[in-house]
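hey can u check if this looks right to u? its 98 residues, i copy pasted from the old doc so theres a chance i mangled smth
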Amino acid sequence: LAIQKEFGSYDAYVWQFAGGKPIDGKRRTLRDLPAKTAESDALSGDLKKRGMSFVGSTIIYAYMQATGLANDHLVSCFRYSCITAPSSVAEPSLPRSE
Protein backbone atom coordinates (compact mmCIF):
# COMPACT_ATOMS: atom_id res chain seq x y z
CA LEU A 1 0.00 0.00 0.00
CA ALA A 2 2.92 2.34 0.60
CA ILE A 3 3.99 1.97 -3.05
CA GLN A 4 0.44 2.65 -4.23
CA LYS A 5 0.25 5.73 -2.03
CA GLU A 6 3.64 7.03 -3.22
CA PHE A 7 3.22 6.33 -6.95
CA GLY A 8 -0.55 6.30 -7.41
CA SER A 9 -0.56 2.61 -8.37
CA TYR A 10 1.70 -0.42 -8.31
CA ASP A 11 1.43 -0.37 -12.11
CA ALA A 12 2.97 3.11 -12.31
CA TYR A 13 5.71 2.03 -9.92
CA VAL A 14 6.87 -1.06 -11.85
CA TRP A 15 6.59 0.50 -15.33
CA GLN A 16 9.09 3.21 -14.39
CA PHE A 17 11.76 0.49 -14.28
CA ALA A 18 10.97 -0.42 -17.90
CA GLY A 19 10.89 3.17 -19.10
CA GLY A 20 7.11 3.15 -19.47
CA LYS A 21 7.00 0.65 -22.34
CA PRO A 22 7.88 -3.03 -22.80
CA ILE A 23 11.59 -3.74 -22.99
CA ASP A 24 12.25 -5.29 -26.40
CA GLY A 25 15.02 -7.84 -25.94
CA LYS A 26 15.32 -8.59 -29.69
CA ARG A 27 16.59 -12.06 -28.80
CA ARG A 28 17.70 -14.22 -31.72
CA THR A 29 18.53 -17.47 -29.89
CA LEU A 30 17.67 -19.04 -26.55
CA ARG A 31 21.27 -18.44 -25.50
CA ASP A 32 20.59 -14.71 -25.79
CA LEU A 33 18.01 -14.88 -22.98
CA PRO A 34 19.42 -13.46 -19.75
CA ALA A 35 18.49 -14.64 -16.27
CA LYS A 36 18.38 -11.01 -15.13
CA THR A 37 18.95 -7.50 -16.48
CA ALA A 38 19.95 -4.09 -15.21
CA GLU A 39 16.24 -3.22 -15.02
CA SER A 40 15.41 -6.30 -12.94
CA ASP A 41 18.42 -5.54 -10.72
CA ALA A 42 17.07 -2.03 -10.15
CA LEU A 43 13.49 -3.13 -9.42
CA SER A 44 14.71 -5.95 -7.18
CA GLY A 45 16.97 -3.60 -5.26
CA ASP A 46 14.22 -1.04 -4.77
CA LEU A 47 11.75 -3.67 -3.56
CA LYS A 48 14.35 -4.96 -1.09
CA LYS A 49 14.95 -1.42 0.20
CA ARG A 50 11.21 -1.24 0.82
CA GLY A 51 11.43 -4.33 3.03
CA MET A 52 10.24 -7.02 0.64
CA SER A 53 11.83 -10.45 0.45
CA PHE A 54 12.00 -13.22 -2.18
CA VAL A 55 12.41 -10.52 -4.82
CA GLY A 56 15.82 -11.39 -6.23
CA SER A 57 16.74 -10.10 -9.67
CA THR A 58 16.11 -13.45 -11.42
CA ILE A 59 12.65 -13.79 -9.88
CA ILE A 60 11.86 -10.18 -10.75
CA TYR A 61 12.99 -10.68 -14.35
CA ALA A 62 10.67 -13.68 -14.68
CA TYR A 63 7.90 -11.45 -13.28
CA MET A 64 8.77 -8.74 -15.82
CA GLN A 65 8.53 -11.28 -18.65
CA ALA A 66 5.24 -12.73 -17.38
CA THR A 67 3.57 -9.35 -16.99
CA GLY A 68 4.70 -7.83 -20.29
CA LEU A 69 7.32 -5.45 -18.94
CA ALA A 70 9.90 -7.38 -20.98
CA ASN A 71 9.35 -8.99 -24.38
CA ASP A 72 11.76 -11.89 -24.63
CA HIS A 73 10.06 -13.78 -27.43
CA LEU A 74 12.66 -14.72 -30.01
CA VAL A 75 12.45 -12.50 -33.07
CA SER A 76 11.64 -15.65 -35.08
CA CYS A 77 8.62 -16.42 -32.86
CA PHE A 78 5.21 -15.62 -34.31
CA ARG A 79 4.28 -13.76 -31.10
CA TYR A 80 7.24 -11.38 -31.31
CA SER A 81 5.79 -9.19 -34.07
CA CYS A 82 2.33 -9.28 -32.49
CA ILE A 83 3.70 -7.89 -29.26
CA THR A 84 5.98 -5.26 -30.81
CA ALA A 85 3.32 -3.97 -33.22
CA PRO A 86 1.58 -0.74 -32.20
CA SER A 87 -1.65 -1.35 -30.36
CA SER A 88 -4.81 -0.94 -32.37
CA VAL A 89 -7.01 -0.71 -29.31
CA ALA A 90 -9.03 2.48 -29.48
CA GLU A 91 -10.34 4.45 -26.58
CA PRO A 92 -13.93 3.48 -25.86
CA SER A 93 -16.38 6.07 -27.07
CA LEU A 94 -18.85 7.55 -24.65
CA PRO A 95 -22.52 7.56 -25.52
CA ARG A 96 -23.71 10.90 -26.83
CA SER A 97 -26.23 12.76 -24.79
CA GLU A 98 -28.99 14.22 -26.89
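The radius of gyration is 17 Å.
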